[in-house]
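Q: Given only this backbone (523 positions), what sequence would you predict?
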């Protein structure tokens, strides 16, 4: 076999039955099997994944190479072993439960050759309501920068890399990171690349959220994720000199990895874990949280991280409980400045600067903060079903401060505002989302639609995620769109925000539900 264009690396651990679709998507690529090699490393699977890999190797011996090894505890070691065996001009990584569009590799290689790119990103979409950050895929780009684009928010390894770049800098995955080991690899590759390109006009990569949610990212624990956040941020600091460029990357890590450690589920952790996480966040903030980064953080992560840095575990718990249990914080007006009335504001014991609580420059967004108090299914006059969301704010003056309608959106779907009213305790907004519009905004693989409020005030448009302190108790319902069936589930995200999950109903999903209902799992 001559030198392949692409070496496709697949790290495999217990991914049946998704693995079969993944491998089929690779062997059916329009680029042709003679131009690719698939290097799959079975990391000690116990569910038959290893046997499935061997079956494909027998069917396609000139294309598929399988390596079996004892379980290593994460994707880093198998990825590194595959890299050591790769011979292609380019290397591409795919999760063993994901799959590619039929023309993905051909388009990526063509672009890399034409533009002379060291890294090429192809548009990634989520399946089964998996949420994928889309900002970097706004348009095709021959060249983007690491520090002046949305690239730091898309540091997964699901990209085409020039193998010469990988080997010249001996880029490998840190094997002591059970979670997030692809980020240091991807970050350094992008940092070293002479050109990074983006292709956004085709669905290249389909990232699957497993229905059983057993992959390591979903089940990893707070202390493990803290250690990985520490490793990632230390790596960034070693790679990039202090200053604006480093801050552009670390902003993502404070917003994502660090902030997620102290989301609402922090309240349910054991006290010892709360103490470990708080101490770890404090160290990271002391070391890397510059004023430039802090001012760019949204108010919730800014105050949670800052309180962990300056206060005690109980101080942090009080801030989180304000959002998770008590609702929208009060607004403290001092002259022309607006401040978020979270616990700790002007507390002499903590000595937190007023500027950390200041929301004056984003007053329209602050005004838009609402809390969902009810989610119900209703039937419209024409017989169509709709989801109605009722949200509240403690501000009685909401309508008088706005200069237009106050509404709710779910993803790109704008709800119909049914009511905007006030009483002695605050203001209420009620909006309705018709099912046909929700389904129209969902791809075949489903969607996760975040519910947000939107209003016009102070000369600008304000928007904010609608929080739901308690998970909606409304039932999930199944609907048909064309020949497909979808289940719509109102629920909450890990951040305590209201989302509408739309998932396709597949034969596999139906069988999985039947097995759960049958005695002994259907055996």
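A: Predicted residues:
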């Amino acid at each position: 076999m001559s030198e392949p264009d692409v070496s496709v690396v697949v790290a495999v651990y217990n991914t049946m039955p998704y693995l079969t679709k993944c491998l089929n998507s690779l062997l059916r690529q329009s680029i042709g099997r003679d131009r690719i090699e698939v290097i799959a490393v079975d990391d000690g699977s116990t569910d038959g994944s290893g046997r499935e890999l061997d079956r494909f190797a027998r069917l396609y011996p000139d294309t598929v190479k399988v390596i079996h090894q004892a379980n290593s505890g994460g994707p880093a070691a198998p990825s590194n072993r595959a890299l050591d065996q790769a011979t292609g001009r380019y290397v591409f990584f795919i999760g063993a439960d994901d799959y590619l569009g039929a023309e993905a590799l051909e388009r990526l290689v063509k672009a890399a050759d034409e533009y002379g790119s060291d890294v090429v990103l192809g548009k990634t979409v989520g399946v089964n309501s998996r949420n994928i950050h889309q900002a970097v895929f706004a348009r095709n780009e021959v060249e983007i920068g690491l520090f002046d684009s949305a690239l730091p928010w898309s540091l997964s390894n699901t990209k085409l890399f020039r193998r010469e770049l990988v080997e010249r800098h001996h880029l490998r995955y840190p094997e002591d990171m059970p979670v997030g080991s692809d980020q240091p690899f991807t970050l350094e590759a992008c940092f070293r690349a002479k050109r990074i390109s983006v292709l956004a006009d085709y669905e290249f990569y389909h990232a699957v959220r497993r229905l059983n949610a057993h992959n390591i990212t979903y089940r990893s624990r707070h202390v493990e994720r803290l250690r990985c956040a520490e490793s990632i941020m230390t790596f960034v600091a070693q790679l990039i000199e202090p200053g604006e460029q480093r801050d552009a990357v670390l902003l993502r890590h404070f917003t994502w990895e660090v902030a997620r450690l102290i989301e609402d589920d922090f309240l349910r952790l054991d006290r010892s874990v709360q103490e470990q996480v708080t101490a770890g966040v404090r160290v990271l903030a002391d070391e890397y949280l510059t004023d430039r980064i802090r001012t760019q953080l949204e108010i919730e992560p800014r105050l949670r991280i800052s309180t962990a840095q300056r206060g005690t575990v109980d101080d942090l718990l009080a801030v989180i409980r304000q959002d998770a249990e008590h609702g929208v914080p009060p607004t403290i007006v001092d002259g022309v400045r607006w401040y978020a009335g979270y616990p700790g504001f002007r507390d002499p014991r903590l000595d937190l600067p007023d500027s950390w609580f200041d929301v004056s420059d984003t007053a329209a967004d602050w005004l838009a903060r609402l809390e969902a108090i009810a989610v119900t299914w209703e039937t419209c006059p024409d017989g169509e079903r709709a989801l109605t969301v009722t949200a509240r704010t403690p501000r009685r003056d909401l309508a008088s401060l706005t200069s237009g309608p106050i509404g709710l959106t779910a993803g790109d779907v704008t709800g119909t505002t049914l009511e905007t009213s006030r009483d002695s305790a605050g203001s209420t907004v009620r909006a309705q989302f018709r099912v046909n519009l929700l389904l129209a905004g969902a791809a075949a693989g489903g969607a996760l639609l975040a519910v947000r409020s939107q209003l016009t005030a102070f000369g600008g448009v304000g928007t904010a995620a609608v929080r739901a302190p308690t998970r909606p108790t409304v039932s999930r319902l199944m609907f048909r769109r064309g020949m497909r069936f979808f289940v719509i589930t109102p629920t909450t995200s890990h951040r305590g925000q209201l989302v509408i999950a739309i998932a396709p109903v597949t034969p596999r999903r139906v069988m999985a539900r039947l097995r759960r209902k049958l005695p002994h799992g259907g055996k």
